[in-house]
Specification:
The chain has 16 helices and no strands. By secondary structure, the protein is mainly alpha-helical. The chain has a single domain, classed as MetI-like fold (Orthogonal Bundle). Helix 4 packs parallel to helix 9 and helix 6 packs parallel to helix 13.
Length: 339
């Protein structure tokens, strides 16, 4: 009798769960989160404190699976920490900040032009400008090499070298500059999509009221538009910066040929050479830096994300007239999209 009651209760709960599909999807996503994120993260953390199979050739008397802090001291404080962690870490941070600056500036400018001005082909630009979002970043890196690669680096030379005989400097073909430019362009859609949504929902009457009170165009942009768009900018910064830290393919294509290492390429190098403990520590440092950046974002602008604009009527949007700049700006936009 007791078993029948328990079976009936179980059947009832299953039926109730079937009537609430959102709970089923919640359970599925929770299991995926545990299996694809939490379990691998715990594996990395645990194994960063254990000797791996390569330990006996680096530490006398080390046994695989034995607890150790060797890899942490080797990466952070050892004689090779400059080349293993510190220098690649500086490279990663400088790339992330540089590409984020490009993405935020260009993405915000493009979003403002498309949403808040009377530029033609708005729908066309709205679609074309998010195409890099659905393509891998290394495609832009390959395109860069097709144009700027010099025959001094081996293989087929780039278009500038092949057709015009221009000897491209190393710092133009490989290294910091091309990595920052290609990644910055690739992640423009992050900022563009977020800023487009925010700018489309800002009531033009707020800006017009400021202009009536004597504020100039730049002052309105700084004191009215920017504060309302700041949460979206913060989100775009975190998305772009974190992607820049973890980016591998572009940094490998444009950095490894001249031994310009970043944290992500150092992780690859460590794992490729079966230095798993070292690779785990570097991976955790990447995660720690990303978490710190998210926390910093929440601390600096988190409170500003909680705001509303009180209005009695629907939102009004008026496009700013570009006047004589309409054709030049449209031409520059088309050139940017084509290139």
């Amino acid at each position: 009798m007791m078993e029948l009651m328990q079976s009936g209760v179980l059947t009832y709960r299953i039926k109730q769960l079937g009537r609430q599909p959102e709970k089923i999807w919640g359970i599925i996503f929770l299991l995926l989160l545990i299996g694809l994120v939490i379990v691998p993260l715990l594996f990395i953390i645990v194994n960063s404190f254990l000797f791996d199979a390569s330990a006996p050739r680096m530490v006398h008397g080390a046994r695989e699976g034995q607890f150790t802090l060797f890899y942490w001291f080797r990466v952070l404080f050892g004689r090779l920490s400059q080349s293993i962690f510190l220098k690649p870490g500086v490279h990663s941070l400088s790339i992330a900040f540089g590409m984020t600056a490009i993405s935020l500036i260009l993405g915000s400018l493009l979003a403002y032009i498309v949403v808040r001005t009377d530029i033609p082909l708005k729908r066309f630009f709205s679609i074309v400008l998010i195409i890099p979002y659905i393509s891998p970043s290394w495609t832009i890196a390959l395109a860069w090499l097709m144009v700027f690669k010099s025959k001094r680096f081996g293989g087929a030379p780039g278009l500038l070298n092949y057709f015009f005989g221009i000897d491209i400097p190393e710092w133009v073909a490989y290294g910091y500059l091309p990595i920052v430019i290609t990644l910055g362009i690739h992640y423009i859609p992050y900022t563009f999509i977020l800023m487009r949504g925010v700018l489309a929902n800002i009531d033009s009457r707020l800006e017009e009221s400021a202009e009536i009170l004597g504020a100039g165009r730049l002052e309105v942009l700084r004191k009215v538009t920017l504060p309302l768009a700041l949460p979206a900018l913060g989100s775009a910064f975190i998305l772009t910066f974190s992607k820049g830290l973890g980016e591998f393919a572009t940094q490998a294509f444009l950095g490894l040929p001249i031994r310009y290492y970043t944290l992500s390429t150092r992780v690859y190098s460590a794992l490729h050479n079966q230095l798993f403990g070292e690779g785990y520590v570097l991976s955790l440092m990447l995660i720690i830096v990303t978490v710190l950046m998210v926390w910093t974002n929440q601390s600096l602008i988190g409170t500003r994300k909680r705001f509303v604009t009180l209005e009695g009527k629907g939102t009004l949007r008026r496009a700013h007239s570009l006047k004589r700049w309409r054709v030049p700006v449209t031409t520059l936009m088309l050139v940017f999209v084509v290139i």
